[in-house]
Amino acid sequence: MILLTLTVLTYSNSLNAYAGEDLSPRKILDIGCHNTDGTCFVDLDGAAFGASLNCPVGAGNQFRFDNSDTAVGKRTFAALMAAYLSGKHLSVHLGGCSAQGWPTVQWFYVVD
Q: pTM value?
């Protein structure tokens, strides 16, 4: 019985590690980066999101990514900035919390 309980707890915890939150198309309101590290942020319109991720900052309208100083991060920022400047919307999958405790983007696509 103890083994079954431990197996179920391990399985449910591993599901939480892979859980994410999908956002339907939203408009980018603000975008920027910190000048002291590789953190960038994006504010979106619509209802608050991120509550299911249990990030320290709680639910809000901003996601972040910590790797803007890498090749992948630079491509991410460039694509998000292009979407912002052209007035396009984003569908986003949030997949965890940033180093600062905000929801973080795992993937996105530009729509419209």
A: 0.80
Instruction: Return the CATH fold of 20-111.
Output: OB fold (Dihydrolipoamide Acetyltransferase, E2P) (2.40.50)
pLDDT at 18: 55
Domain residue extents for the chain: 20-111
Strands (E), 6-102: 21-33, 40-44, 62-65, 89-97
Residues 6+ apart with CB under 8 A from 64: 39, 40, 41, 42, 98, 100, 102, 103, 104, 105
Cα(42)–Cα(103) distance, integer angstroms? 10
